[in-house]
Amino acid sequence: MSETTPTTPAPADAVPRVAILGAGGKMGRHAVPAVREAAGLELVAELGSRDPLQAVLDAGATHLLDLTVPDASPDNVAFAVEHGLHAVVGTSGWGAERRRALEAQLAEHPGVGVLIAPNFSVGSVLASAFAAKAARWFESVEVVELHHPAKLDAPSGTAVRTAEMIGDARAAAGVDPSPDATERDPDGARGAVVNGVHVHAVRLRGLEAHQEVLMGGPGEQLTVRHDAFDRGAYMPGVVLGLRTVASRPGLTYGLDGVLELD
Ligand SMILES: NC(=O)C1=CN([C@@H]2O[C@H](COP(=O)(O)OP(=O)(O)OC[C@H]3O[C@@H](n4cnc5c(N)ncnc54)[C@H](OP(=O)(O)O)[C@@H]3O)[C@@H](O)[C@H]2O)C=CC1
Ligand SMILES: O=C(O)C1=N[C@H](C(=O)O)C[C@H](O)C1
């Protein structure tokens, strides 16, 4: 076993030495060549569910890329933070409670950066930002996310993030909740309600990852739609996240912060 366990986080100007967790998964199989070929990044470990987390330290990694499953991701990230590794997280399922626990841990490890990116696609991040900007001007807003049937979670992390942004923007603007005359919904046909926004999840063979934000006012509608057809769409965001996370200590939630869209 190696003695290379870093306890001091790697500085922002050091070349990130990246361990990928979930390297054999659908995202991981794209991320391995993307990281390997990216200038200024070094791929030091490709790990799956059978590998112990210690293998990350044995490889001398300074950065963890987590592309696993919602049940495993919090422990993986906690392990990284505990050992002074920066982490970029694409795995979904990072609700407010998990993020609060992570922030508490990060407060004990100053200098460690974690980026949780519900979506690495620049187009998707822009679509959510546009929708959040527009939503205050419409009476009604609903989110529909559509994914492949192997997806483990619902609603998608992107839809949750989008609804959070929309609900926050509408609240800040003092907009009334979307009118909704449904008093009884015994079968849940109106979907989940996230931050006051109805979110609907479709799982369908043939789909990859798609989202529509439907906004309606008297006599008009605006739809903001994004489609990811291939997991290659996420790789520029993955690489950008790995290159910048060390310069952002603490928790960054959403690639929009990294793209400086505000
Ligand atoms: N942020 C974004 O832009 C995107 C996020 N995602 C999210 O990323 C996650 C992964 O998606 P996807 O690649 O499609 O999923 P897959 O099911 O294809 O892959 C998941 C991988 O995680 C591995 N794994 C499971 N548990 C562990 C563990 N404890 N330690 C290490 N590896 C583990 C599995 O390894 P093994 O095969 O060895 O069991 C598997 O290879 C999902 O949460 C998905 O929603 C997806 C697309 C874009
Ligand atoms: O599982 C997926 O496929 C995706 N997961 C992420 C999510 O939950 O939002 C990102 C994208 O939608 C693809």
From TrEMBL:
PANTHER family: 4-HYDROXY-TETRAHYDRODIPICOLINATE REDUCTASE 1, CHLOROPLASTIC-RELATED, DIHYDRODIPICOLINATE REDUCTASE
EC number annotated for this UniProt entry: 1.17.1.8
InterPro entries on file: DapB_C (IPR022663), DapB_N (IPR000846), DapB_N_CS (IPR022664), DHDPR_bac (IPR023940), NAD(P)-bd_dom_sf (IPR036291)
Active site per UniProt: 147, 151
UniProt family annotation: Belongs to the DapB family.
Catalysis performed (reactions): (S)-2,3,4,5-tetrahydrodipicolinate + NAD(+) + H2O = (2S,4S)-4-hydroxy-2,3,4,5-tetrahydrodipicolinate + NADH + H(+); (S)-2,3,4,5-tetrahydrodipicolinate + NADP(+) + H2O = (2S,4S)-4-hydroxy-2,3,4,5-tetrahydrodipicolinate + NADPH + H(+)
Main location: cytoplasm
Functional summary from the UniProt entry: Catalyzes the conversion of 4-hydroxy-tetrahydrodipicolinate (HTPA) to tetrahydrodipicolinate.
Biological pathway: Amino-acid biosynthesis; L-lysine biosynthesis via DAP pathway; (S)-tetrahydrodipicolinate from L-aspartate: step 4/4
Binding site for NAD(+): 22-27, 90-92, 117-120
Record's GO cellular component terms: cytosol
Cell compartment(s), UniProt: Cytoplasm
Keywords linked to the UniProt accession: Amino-acid biosynthesis, Cytoplasm, Diaminopimelate biosynthesis, Lysine biosynthesis, NAD, NADP, Oxidoreductase
Gene3D superfamilies: Dihydrodipicolinate Reductase, domain 2, NAD(P)-binding Rossmann-like Domain
Keyword set includes Magnesium: no
NCBIfam families, alphabetized: dapB (TIGR00036)
Name of this chain's protein: 4-hydroxy-tetrahydrodipicolinate reductase
An annotated GO BP: diaminopimelate biosynthetic process
Dihydrodipicolinate reductase C-terminal domain ranges (all copies): 124-259
Subunit structure: Homotetramer.
GO molecular function: 4-hydroxy-tetrahydrodipicolinate reductase; NAD binding; NADP binding; oxidoreductase activity, acting on CH or CH2 groups, NAD or NADP as acceptor
Binding site for (S)-2,3,4,5-tetrahydrodipicolinate: 148, 157-158
